[in-house]
Design a protein that fits this description.
- This protein has three domains: 5-313, Thiamin diphosphate (ThDP)-binding fold, Pyr/PP domains (Rossmann fold), CATH 3.40.50.970; 343-526, 3-Layer(aba) Sandwich (Rossmann fold); 538-664, Rossmann fold (3-Layer(aba) Sandwich), CATH 3.40.50.920.
- The longest helix has 26 residues, at 13-38.
- Helices cover 40% and strands 15% of the residues.
- The strands form five sheets. A seven-stranded mixed sheet has the order 10-9-11-12-14-13-19, sandwiched between helices.
- It has 24 helices and 21 strands.
- It is elongated, with a radius of gyration of 28 Å.
- By secondary structure, it is α/β, with parallel strands linked by helices.
């Protein structure tokens, strides 16, 4: 039970000494980092926390050990205040293997799972949706934890800030948002970049309780943090602290600080948190000079030890370069039973729906979220009816905020849930690309393997419905370019139903691209259909004369082309890639060893396409098997047109596949 006394800092001698010592410890650590930067021991972007120490020290010690922290790129002070060992923080600054992230994150990406420290984030505002997702996971599981999210005032201009505020308020999530308002987003003063500089007022417009506090006063910050955390634990709703502070050093060590003069900085230094608090303690005889000297000496010894530890630590060996991109331990591939004679007729859409239903029945950590996935069933009605079965908590409608709810999915997955995020159409995924590429795909690597994101993202992809240029993209090849992701393209009913469950067992993010032209496709599915192997390509039609290599919606065009070729005595082998990252090179090369010719059918644009990657691999691995150059059939290099005849002309079609096949056979 919250009492009035628990809401106020108890300014005992021990406590005030702890507060002062914690701020001095951060300040001296940052001073040493600046020195090491000039010696080129620390490289990259180095953002120092000088002047803002009262925020981290006022907030973080009030959190419980099970509460989580999401920080920004100026996070060394947060990590130290949280209890991440200084020697491991310093080793990370060096990039050494003993660092808190194994040396893979560096200054901007300090992670520590043991302290529930979910890392710094180099993307302005990028950590906000992650914090929302961590809070969502706790709310859905009924856990009493709080996630504290630190960010600067520059993030307020980002869409992810507003998306995150809305989601946190809408879903009543236990998140403490801490804005460290130091007045400058890099070199841009707040008054030059915001039409309304009152961040506190902006937040209250979302219905979030907000306090503005003097961020240079550690006692005021602690008091505000205690009140905010007590309110979150009592109501489950988010709280917001705007801490008015100032950084004494440049934005980063690359910053020439042309946007402010020395007099302004010196004026702020005079009211800095350490000088102010130490002066108040001395005036009131709560601490003495010899005590302060002892604290500083103790801190200097700790820093010297941390530097010595970092200097003597080993670099990560080159042999482990590819470690922590994906999890080393993966689930055992599912046993695929022989198909039963009994079949059920259904559409591709119904097969995906059945997969979602079965996953949610098997695992209560699984939930679906996206735009209109509830009563409407999403843009293509895949989830229609599931809200009646599982309720609005697990079939979760979202606002039109792709970055916000995709990032929330990332956070929920990192906290142990198994989210399925539906992005209505693949072009909307570009609004969430930051969260997919910069967080989901990288957090395992940046954290040295401490955090993973077992997330599934479903995307409707492809053209053919006369949706014109902005709703007809095939971007699978773009995502297949990104390390840290698995990319799937189920074409058959069996894969549409079975790939989802297999993907949900993966410890890393999986993107599933569902071609829009397949949703209405009907077929017979064996009654015992279940999970499928997502690592292997499938031979959909055996052949001897050439290999047609494709995926997704183009599979059926390739099969139809193979039928047409067979009428001319040409037996084409049709390979359904199924997995686009990683590619099943073995199946492709084994097919070419038999057929010695290949045509790749890819609905993406030709330049820089997935087909180009496959062709390159064929040349690298199977050149001496080939009897002809690799052929490609891709979409025309134009935005997809609206008129049906132009749309058809822009996409791979059966006649073009047949012509390409005959060309590589020398029968054109």
């Amino acid at each position: 039970m919250t009492t009035q006394s628990s809401l106020k800092p108890h300014l005992t001698h021990d406590h005030v000494r702890e507060l002062l010592a914690a701020m001095i410890r951060i300040r001296h650590f940052e001073d040493k980092c600046a020195e090491l930067y000039t010696q080129e021991k620390i490289r990259g972007f180095l953002h120092l926390y000088d002047g803002e120490e009262a925020v981290a020290v006022g907030v973080i010690p009030v959190l419980g050990s099970e509460d989580r922290i999401v920080a920004t790129y100026r996070e060394h002070g947060h990590a130290l205040a949280r209890g991440v060992p200084m020697d491991r923080v310093m080793a990370e600054m060096y990039g050494k293997a003993t660092g808190s992230s194994g040396g893979r994150g560096g200054s901007m990406h300090i992670f520590d799972a043991a302290h529930n420290f979910y890392g710094g984030n180099a993307i302005v505002g990028g950590g906000l949706p992650l914090a929302v997702g961590l809070g969502l996971a706790d709310r859905m599981r009924g856990l009493p934890h709080v996630t504290a999210c630190f960010f600067g005032e520059g993030a307020v201009a980002e869409g992810e800030f507003h998306e995150s505020m809305n989601l946190a308020a809408l879903w009543s999530l236990p998140v403490l948002f801490v804005c460290e308002n130091n007045g400058y987003a890099m070199g841009s003063a707040l008054k030059r970049t915001e039409s309304n500089t009152d961040i506190h007022a902006k937040v209250t417009s979302y219905g979030i309780a907000s306090m503005q506090v003097d961020g240079m006063d550690v006692v005021a910050v602690e008091a505000a943090a205690r009140r905010a955390l007590a309110a979150i634990r009592e109501t489950g709703k988010p709280q917001f602290l705007e801490c008015l502070t100032y950084r004494f050093r440049a934005h980063s060590m690359f910053d020439a600080q042309l946007y402010r003069d020395k007099a302004e900085v010196e004026a702020w230094r005079e009211k800095g948190p350490i000088k102010r608090f130490q002066g108040w303690l001395s005036q009131n005889h709560l601490i003495h000079a010899d005590e302060v000297a002892a604290v500083e000496a103790e801190v200097e010894r700790e820093i010297a030890g941390a530097v010595d530890f970092a200097e003597k630590s080993d670099w990560e060996p080159l042999e482990t370069l590819s470690a922590h991109v994906m999890a080393t331990e993966r689930p055992v591939p599912p046993v695929v039973p022989a198909p039963s004679a009994e079949t059920v007729e259904m559409t591709y859409r119904e097969a995906v729906r059945q997969a979602i239903r079965e996953a949610m029945q098997k695992d209560d950590r699984v939930f679906l979220m996206g735009e209109d996935v509830g009563a409407y069933g999403g843009c293509y009605a895949v989830s229609k009816g599931l809200m009646d079965e599982f309720g609005p908590e697990r079939i979760r409608d979202t606002p039109l905020s792709e970055s916000g709810f995709t990032g929330a999915g990332v956070g929920a997955a990192a906290a142990g849930m198994r989210p399925i995020v539906e992005l209505m159409t693949v072009n909307f995924s570009l609004l969430a690309l930051d969260q997919i590429m910069n967080t989901a795909a990288t957090i395992r690597h940046m954290s040295g393997g401490q955090f993973g994101v077992p997330l599934v993202i479903r995307l409707a992809t492809g053209a053919g419905r006369q949706l014109a240029a902005q709703h007809s993209h095939s971007l699978e090849g773009w995502y297949a370019h990104i390390p840290g992701l698995r990319v799937l393209a189920p074409a058959t009913l069996g894969d549409a139903r079975g790939m989802l469950w297999t993907a949900l067992q993966e410890p890393d993010p999986v993107l599933i691209f569902e071609n829009v032209m397949l949703y209405n496709r009907t077929g017979k599915l064996p009654e015992n259909a279940g999970p499928v192997d997502i690592d292997k390509a499938a031979i959909r039609r055996p052949g001897r004369d050439l290999s047609l290599i494709t995926y997704g919606g183009s599979l059926y065009k390739a099969l139809e082309a193979a039928e047409a070729l067979a009428a001319d005595g040409i037996e084409a082998e049709v390979i359904d890639l199924r997995s686009l990252r990683p590619l099943d090179d073995a199946t492709i090369m084994a097919s070419l060893a038999r057929t010695r010719r290949a045509v790749i059918v890819d609905e993406g644009w030709r330049s820089g396409s997935l087909s180009a990657e496959i062709a390159a691999r064929i040349m690298e691995q199977a050149f001496w098997h080939l009897d002809a150059p690799v052929g490609r059939v891709c979409s025309a290099e134009v935005p997809i047109p609206y008129p049906k005849h132009l749309e058809d002309a822009s996409l791979p079609q059966v006649p073009g596949i047949v012509a390409a096949a005959k060309s590589v056979l020398g029968k054109a």
